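OP here, attaching both records as promised.
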Amino acid sequence: MFRKTTTLFLTGMLLAVAPSATATAATDIAVLIDGKVQQYDQSPVLVQDRCLVPLRGIFETLGATITWEEMTQSVTAVKGSDTIKLQIGSSAATKNGQNLTLSVAPQVVHDRTMVPVRFVAEALGADVYWNEDTQSVDIRTANYIGKQFPKAPAMLIDTAKDYTAVVNTNKGTFKIHLFDNDSPITVNNFVFLARDHYYDHVKFHRIIERFMIQTGDPTGSGAGGPGYSFQDELPPKKPYTPGIVAMANAGPNTNGSQFFIGTGDDVQYLNKAPFYTVFGEVSAGMDVVKAIAATPVQEKQWGDEKSSPIEVVTIDSIIIEEK
């Protein structure tokens, strides 16, 4: 029954500021929209630990049209049914007539109106993340599909070493011992994607408490992937049990980036049809995995399976340790 679904399965902070504040150049900070680094005619600035970027650049890239009112020094941005109004030097803003308060007011820097990137992006319906390691603002719209690669990665791991993935989520941290000897191709792929920050801020899009939790798709739809597929490593050397980590797929040799973690006894039914490459096992933090599995869910739009999380659960980062 796992093979018939059409989606991948298991088979399924930062505008310028009030004059009293000081804007500090933040040339080392990158702003990405759907994975593409933005280039502005005025570099981002930091004001009270908030990142400000040129007004026109951020609004128009996110699909909004803007109107400037010189007399009031205010801007109106429209995207679809949403209307956002801001004023230079004022921390007050509105969205669709609702009053909002900015942590930092818009300001002019070198003849450019600068606005808080987080406020603007979120007001226009995008998700915004701060990546401390890369010093970047990561903006993801509904069109985000994740980084795409032309082919699966070359072998980069050393199977003489032990690899552990430290998975940081907004529910806590757990660790996965990776089976690089049993499934070297799959572990190599996982290590490559993790080190490339591919999994950062990716949602757990499918949760069935008695069965498994599934993640690894940057689109959050269950149909996304890295742009390539690679071969299965079957049959699995270890049985499907709670805590086991395996690749999700849409059929033979269609592995990409999505994976699942067994969370309940129902995962053992997969032992009757072992079509999913096992490449690791939770070695610490199973309580966190269980907490994720306990997330309230509702029926998916495309079927009657009750597995769509009501609240957002995400991977913050995956750190690979090797010994």
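Record two, same layout:
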Amino acid sequence: MKENNTDFKNTRFGFLPIDWDCLPLGELVHDVAYGSSAKSSSDGSTPVLRMGNMQDGFIDWTDLVYTSDELEIKKYKLEKNTVLFNRTNTVDLVGKAAIYKGERPAIYAGYLIKINNKPELLNAEYLNYILNTYQIKSYNKLVLSVAVSQANINGQKLKTYPIPVPPNIEEQKAIANALSDVDALLTELEKLIAKKQTIKTATMQQLLTGKTRLPQFATYTEGEKKGQQKGTKPSELGEIPEDWDVITIDEALSKKMIIDQMDGNHGELYPKSHEFSQDGVPYVGATDFYNGIIDYKNCKKLPLGRAKKFKKGIALNGDILFAHNATVGPTTLVETEEDFIIISTTATYYRCDNEKLKNTYLLSFFKSDLFVKQFSAVMSQSTRNQVPILAQRKFYIAIPSIEEQTAIAAILSDMDNEIQTLEQRLAKTRQIKQGMMQALLTGRIRLPFNQAKGI
């Protein structure tokens, strides 16, 4: 791989090496063909790929529909390494492209277009990467037509798409192979993260119900029962260890285990849009925290003077946030160098006395099935997607000793940290791939390839 020092020319795709062409897709394909409009169902012999099955350049094999119509299967059967184009969707999603790798027999639905490329001129994998560049996504917006709530790009318009074409087909293959290697790494990272998540979920379920006890808490260490295995007892949350308690959040507030619980219902002090600023005190709502991390960079901000006017919803470092409105369920630990942050009407904060109830333990409990089932039950009784603060106070929490809380939270926190590290690596690798795509698909960086094969 080397930086290209040759001259560049301006094309419809952007600047390309002087020895590259920029050709309309129509000159590089045999034809483009619309998919099946026949009715599909949840049963059948062959999957029918739809626009929802196209994700980030690849086929997502979940949420499938099927057909057993032999005529349709014969007519619309896909061949390995075929690029599909989504001709009808929302304005933001129309123009998605993905490559069918022959993972299993399939046909394609009517909102998709099959691109039959001329293999001696255009490599299918290379084309798929081109159609997923920001240049092509911008071109989608230029040529789409809108009718009612959907956008459309027909086959004739698709044939006008500008395609960068290196002078040798082997260079296209070399570019596609390099990007494919990165995609393989991304896939392995995604699988590893999913595996770690599954292990963590199972571990959480075992530890937070007491079905599995850490060795140092599994037996009695003194008294008549010294050395004996600890038993279980029935509770509002099911069978729990006999040395645990189950109390409501309201009771935890009364016992000062939870010092304070408050939402961001600011009433007449609710900030108006013009009051937000580029910098200042974070104003955090339910959509600003995901996977246990607050997005301080992109959340709204308020000037310090305006933020100090609030009477409630003032969260501090170490508080636990629970999303209770619109987006329900996400929870996170407030970790900030600010003196305080403001939470919106969609979030509730919990402030623990860490001598009685560890905040990190409560955070883990809020993520558990035991807690999710409780707020899901409240939501099922209403058409509104919310769990009010008073309803939250009726929820039960399981309380081990402070020592066991600390040990459980430490194990689950370590697992969270490992997953977050992998997710950060995944995000970084995706950024690297985007950079590689821009460098390789515009010829800014050229790869060595076997020129003899292209002669």
